[in-house]
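Fold this complex.
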Amino acid sequence: MIKITDLQAKIDDKEILKGLNLEVKPGEIHAIMGPNGAGKSTLASVLAGREDYEITGGSVDFQGTDLLDMNTEERAREGLFLAFQYPVEIPGVSNINFLRTAINEIREHKKKDPISAKDFMAMVREKSALVELDSKLASRSVNEGFSGGEKKRNEIFQMAMLEPKLAILDETDSGLDIDALRIVANGVNTLKSDKNATIVITHYQRLLDYIVPDFVHVLYDGKIVKTGGKELALELEEKGYDWIKEELAN
Amino acid sequence: MSAYTEEELAKDLEGQEYKFGFTTDIKSDQAPKGLNEDIIRFISAKKEEPEWMLQNRLEAFAIWKEMKEPDWAHVKYEKPNFQDIIYYSAPNQTKKYESWDDVDPEMKETMKKLGISMEEQKRLTGTNVAVDFVMDSVSVATSFKSKLKELGIIFCSFSEAVQDHPELVREHMGTVVPTKDNFYAALNSAVFTDGSFCYIPKGVRCPMELSTYFRINEGGTGQFERTLVVADEGSYVSYLEGCTAPQRDENQLHAAVVELVAKDNAEIKYSTVQNWYPGDKNGLGGIFNFVTKRGICGYRSKISWTQVETGSAVTWKYPSCILKGDYSVGEFYSVAVTNNYQQADTGTKMIHLGKNTKSTIISKGISAGESHNSYRGLVQINKNAHNARNFSQCDSLLMNDTCGAHTFPYIECKNSSAKIEHEATTSKIGEDQIFYCLQRGISEEKAIGLIVNGYCKEVLNQLPMEFAVEAQKLLSISLEGSVG
Amino acid sequence: MAVIEQKKTGLNSSTIWNQLSETELRIDSQDKEMALRVLNNTPMPTTRTEAWKYTRVSKLGKIEFSNQGAQLTSIDKYIIDESGTRLVFINGHLSEEFSSEEFQDELNITLLSQGEELAPSILNLDDEIFHSLNTAFLTDGVQIEIADNANVERTIQIIHILKGESVISNFKTIIKAGKSSQANIIQGFFAEGEGKSNFCNSTSEIFVGENAALTVDKVQYENESTFHISTEQVQQEKNSVFTINTSTLNGGLVRNNINIDVNGENCVSHMNGVYLLKNKQHVDNHTVMNHKVAHCDSHELYKGVIDDKATAVFNGKVYVRPDAQKINAFQSNGNVLLSDDASVYSKPELEIYADDVKCSHGSTTGQLDEEAIFYLQARGLSKKSAHKLMVSAFIGEALDMTKNENARAFIDNLLLERFGWDF
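Structure:
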């Protein structure tokens, strides 16, 4: 699905990613954990194609093509989805209109006809139920006046609508109460198939009780420094990150 | 302009004696270049106007000669040479394209994007070949007309109104925008060629948007347009003006006057989509749009202006409300988009005279390219306007660092019971918002269209449905390639 | 028609300076020439002049002003900050008697009448009658230089007192705040006794050096027959902070022009103003915030309470010049009208030529919240004290911008004296 090799990136002359390697195969869920400032969100932004970051080395292969060669919308149309840590508000633009535009642009890219209004509305009903998103929210402006939990659920709702190949959830769990967390996780789990993959970026082990990862990676100082199974997350939760730092120092 | 004495005029006339002899000249379809009393007599004669109308025009001309072209607006342009303009030309004389192939491909492309039918595209460009279509419209128009007639609604060209309803025209014309109001209003009063007249009788609610009819019949209205809408007591009308299609016009200067009279308990909703030719990418050509629009409100009446301005090289326009009657309401909703080298100086005046009057101003300015977009507005609470309320929100969005956005509100308050709130913001289009859209697979152009339309939602919502859809497309098209 | 050609253009027909003689100060010769040319060729502004749309100055043109010194027995009541040093000018002339004998070491103070030839002015003279009048007929002035790196702890007060009838004082203040210096300068404007039709026409040229922090507190308390027109022309260099707080508590016709040019990056500018008006007072605050370079902030807050037949005018303009990116400019003007005969004209303007900016302005005009007043009355307050409380709550935000405690106490005292308002 995606293969990241020796990825290096900087922002304003500050190196953030310093040779990151990661491979994700279809059907897998990978969790990336790490202390503040390790480069977790940078990784998400770089993969999505945010222009503030300068790629200084390495490569990213996404389904056989060079991801870094594509612009943001091409990556999205090829099936890369980023659930934002801070979903932005777009006043006056309804969620529905926004999604319909996105779906039709993706369909156009795939040389398919635009979705019919009837099919689209049926899809909205089905997918909004999945994340228990009030259908009223679907007709409100994108993220405007949404609570923190609603914004995150809306991200998963969009993910369900756009049916990506690879979803990157950037701190989707931060600031969520346990109910919202359960709903978000439930959405992610339902959407899981052997054809798609998910990268979960998180700070806390808590989310991983609900979304069970196949692999857990520790991102520290711009590199993946440790990889393990689900139990690594528990260990991190218990001991913090200091032991990793120590291990590295030795 | 220096004072022009009668002596000088006499001298002028000596030199050109009977050059425009009315008896012969009336047959000509076009007046010669320039402006003088004879030209005005020519226009009036062409239109077979009654004597009082001719006198109105001559009076206006005398006033105009004494006036100076205003220069306070935040726009720069070469002042028109008023002697170099043809003030009358019969409708069939406007320039037409020889064939569909001659029409500017860029313009064709824009119309295609707007989803305008081929027939209408041809009609709008003046490639007047689709006879069926025209025939068809006439029948549609006629069916509208009979329906309106049943209700006693008068809706016709201004010239027809002068002939058929002189008493109504005489009673109201110039009562809202007096001839001496400003330089261009005076000019218009002297030389206006045609326009629309609308009268809604007491207690009648006009059942349809007065748009379709207008768009079919008045597509090529000339450069000095005159519109008068009178809503009698307790009546309602929604009036749509303009067209979303790009209007190529050979006339550089447009100076229209629109007067609205809302009598007690009446309501007028006046919507405009203005998309005159804005000039090319380098700022060459384009229309000067100097418009005076004003309405007067009676007791408990309401006038609501909505405008979407995307065209013209230079726009100078302030649709205003005189809130004379107690409890009257004035509203102004505006979206003005400027791109390339366009300049717009637009806004409104809310003159509160009556008690418990209320006004709302929502203005959204979007600047791109090298353009300049200014909001200029006046909120005036007069001494006897007890409990007047005003709320103004003026937002400007900048698309790049070469354009300008300016806000010039004038707030004048002479009554202590008034409440006035004015807010203005200026900011750049949100990069985060664009990125969010891109990440969902939406192209940058579409993303900008979405965001801008969202930004203008409060205003677009005021437009009648079918107009709103076209206006949205128009906004996106106007901003193509605008992000720096 | 045989109409007498009365030249109404230019002050040349005006009586403002008939009794005055050209300044003996050594001002820049080009400035002087320009000033005289402007005075001879420029008509007195009318309400058709955009910058004077809401303020009539025609009255000024009908008065024959003169200038002479005057004596006072005491100036105690005009001392704003007891702890600071002071320069006292009566009708524009230095009063050695009442001025401090010694000044802070970090300061270099020179009277313009005793100093070297002045450098060209940074004031705009073209079309500016009052700047030109000030220049051509300059009575005197003072230059205060603050040494680099100086932290001037005590305030410096420049106290102006007008005394007599139809007296004009054309005064110029030049402040040069050196690199990384810090200082608080107070300008006080007063009128002695029943002085009639006096005219204070003051200009200030203020240079805020790199990394300097300069605060100017301006207290205006002349009388209701006084004319006051003043301009502060400010130049800010990089990393500097400039604050000006204008409190207008009395005066007949008051026009304050504050023009700030920000020439260097990373500057902060604050303009605050408070105006309380009654009877037939007319107060006009005109500000121009000119952001010429990137990465700067400006904050502007003007609040006023207008009673009786008084008129308040606020015209605040913010320019963001091309390429001056990353500017945050905020402007707010609030007015409360206490009487049906009071008027307010508010004109907040933005002219933005750069895109990555955040600019906003707000203007509100209204009255005291009747509900709140009723609530206070229900809690036992008299209507009068309820009003006072509400006024102070409204204006307090802007009043609090004067951080100098002594100056603030002085202002509070004047408010009590003139309006009976206790803050």
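Chain A has one domain: 2-249.
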